[in-house]
């Protein structure tokens, strides 16, 4: 599932490649992923519209467009397997393509979703009236990039479970998922199953700083790779380049050399038992 760094790098890259371009052709294929409106309306509304900007709201991308007095907002929630990609006329289209958008600079952006877990919405409004937005966004906490350290620590007091569960809870902050939470906790030297109230002030500060460092450094690294490869749906490769513990089961910890541990519960957690000591020493 793409998380904040991947979507932020994609957002910045796309904004510099297709902003102010007009959509000259729209095709829809897998209609079930398009929650609103109908596939036909989706095509009609987007055709001829101009892309103004792309924003990221947690793990959702919003494309803002206009067509005369019509304001259009296209939201993409990638789910587990949804990915944006470039296509070309000569290229065989991805088997699970949901839609394709051709822009006036001849670039063709497609959205494909192998397991159809994602969701796409297109809302339209007239005369700058506020547009509707997907209900899921209403439950989101602040995006990590917008939150200060004091706000982060203050919010943390309201969430009392295991720290990894809190970091990935979109009501706490949006944008962090299972994979980057492992990387952040490793950077902060905090055991993933430490309970939030067990963390002292220094550990909470370290956690905030680790979020900031891990996420911003990942955005920079992915942006660099994207510029050189132009490949948007390349998450696995990006992660191979960036990750230090996630999916590194039994490999030596990059700091102490101890083998990386794996715990498979509802989801996979990787961490170093030597570097990430539980806040409560009686734990484990
Ligand atoms: Zn270690």
Can you walk me through this structure?
The protein has 284 residues and is an alpha+beta fold. The chain has 2 domains: 4-139, MutM-like, N-terminal (N-terminal domain of MutM-like DNA repair proteins); 144-271, Helicase, Ruva Protein, domain 3. 30% of the residues lie in helices and 24% in strands. It has helices spanning 4-18, 39-46, 149-156, 163-167, 178-188, 201-229, 235-242; strands at residues 23-28, 34-36, 50-57, 60-67, 70-77, 82-87, 97-103, 108-113, 119-126, 261-264, 268-271. The strands form 3 sheets. A 5-stranded mixed sheet has the order 2-9-5-4-3, covered by helices on one side. A 4-stranded antiparallel sheet has the order 1-7-8-6, with helices on one face. α3 (149-156) packs across α6. The protein is globular. Bound molecules: zinc ion.
């Amino acid at each position: 599932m793409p998380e904040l760094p991947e979507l932020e790098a994609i957002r910045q890259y796309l904004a510099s490649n297709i902003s102010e371009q007009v959509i000259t052709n729209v095709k829809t294929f897998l209609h079930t992923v398009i929650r609103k409106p109908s596939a036909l309306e989706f095509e009609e509304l987007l055709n001829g519209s101009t892309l103004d900007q792309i924003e990221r709201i947690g793990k959702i991308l919003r494309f803002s467009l206009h067509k005369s007095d019509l304001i259009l907002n296209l939201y993409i929630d990638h789910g587990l397997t949804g990915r944006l990609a470039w296509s070309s006329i000569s290229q065989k289209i991805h088997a699970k393509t949901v839609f394709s958008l051709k822009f006036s600079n001849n670039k063709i952006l497609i959205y494909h979703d192998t397991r159809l877990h994602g969701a796409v919405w297109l809302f339209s409004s007239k005369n700058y009236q506020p547009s509707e937005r997907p209900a899921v966004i209403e439950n989101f906490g602040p995006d990590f990039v917008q939150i200060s350290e004091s706000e982060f620590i203050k919010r943390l007091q309201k969430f009392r479970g295991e720290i990894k569960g809190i970091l990935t809870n979109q009501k706490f902050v949006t944008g962090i998922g299972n994979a980057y939470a492992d990387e952040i906790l490793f950077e902060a030297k905090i055991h993933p199953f430490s309970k939030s109230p067990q963390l002292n002030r220094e550990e909470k500060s370290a956690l905030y700083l680790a979020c900031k460092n891990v996420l911003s450094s990942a955005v920079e690294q992915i942006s660099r790779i994207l510029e050189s490869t132009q490949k948007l749906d390349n998450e696995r490769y990006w992660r191979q380049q960036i990750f230090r513990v996630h999916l590194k089961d039994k490999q030596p910890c990059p700091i102490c050399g101890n083998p990386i541990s794996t715990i498979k519960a509802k989801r996979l957690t990787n961490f170093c038992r030597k570097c990430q000591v539980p806040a409560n020493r009686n734990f484990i």
